[in-house]
Amino acid sequence: MSDAVISQPGAWSRLRRNRTAMISLGLLVFIVLFAIVGPWCFDYRPAEPSKAQFQPPSLAHPFGTDLNGRDELSRVLQGARISLLVGLCGALISFVIGTGYGMVSGYFGGRVDGWMMRFVDILYSVPRLLIIIVAIYAFDKELKEWLSTHGWMGMVGFSRIALLIVVLGLNAWLSLARIVRGQVLALKEQQFILAARALGQSHTRIILRHLLPNLMGIVTVYLTLTIPQVILDESFLSFLGLGIQAPQASWGSLLSDGANVINPVRSYWWLLLFPALAMSLTLLALNFLGDGLRDALDPRQKR
């Protein structure tokens, strides 16, 4: 009755035929695994400065060293952990809010849909970065004080990461809500939805059991495209000094450190090249994988 699901059985085979998407998937798996197991495979201690200041890439330090003599490879691995964590968790928050909001708006329609979409339009009119910056300045200190007073001293250093995840996730769901709403407006007129209503099924059951499975294909594609957006926003904030704070590092903060030591007299190019290369490859792989998933989950796109 409601099995007109977008994710057809042949989606995986169509994705496997997309060489670019499979290469991107393999690259992403490699980057994630390397970020997870890298610190255990290499005896790098990024928190312990040494006298090897501004050493160029070598066998001892493949990515060179920074101002404090810290190994740049270990810093890039640490940055990968934080940037990927912020990107994935922020995108998941956007996924949950945007999907739920769009389904409710499109399903009930009428006045409910009108008011909900006007609220989305109002949020669209406010600059996203302005909201993010204000939220960071407004809640960062209070969150640290709350953690310290409730015995979570070990989590105080991660308060900025948690705040970035929540704030970026809450600012990335608007486009997904509109996409889901448009899909629901079309789906709710299908025969299986009308049959479910005629059988007396509740609105919650229709939304969760009939509409949501039919939306998983498109929202999965959008999820892979939201992760790069959240990573870029976090990197931009960290580049400006508003995101991840030292001694922690993300790709954005590493790029900021690298830009600060670029000068006409001497260029420590490796401090800018390797973080930029790691972030660029990850973002490109996520975008190519998202395009591949879009084509694989839509039989009309197959060649």
Query: Got a strand count?
Result: 0
**Overall domain count:** 1
Unreliable runs: 1-7
CATH class group:
Mainly Alpha
Strand-and-helix sequence, N→C?
A: HHHHHHHHHHH
- Count of runs of 4 or more consecutive helical residues: 11
Helix content: over 70%
Q: Architecture, CATH level 2?
A: Orthogonal Bundle
Rg result: 23 Å
Question: What would you call the shape?
Answer: globular
How is the biggest beta sheet arranged? none
Write out the CATH superfamily name.
MetI-like
Structural class, from secondary structure content?
A: mainly alpha
Your description of this structure?
There is one protein chain. This protein is mainly α. The protein has one domain: MetI-like (MetI-like fold). Helix content is 70%, strand content 0%. It contains 11 helices and no strands. It has helices at residues 11-17, 19-41, 72-108, 110-125, 128-149, 159-170, 174-187, 191-198, 203-239, 251-260, 270-296. Helix 2 (19-41) packs across helix 3 and helix 7 packs antiparallel against helix 9. The protein is globular and about 75 Å long.
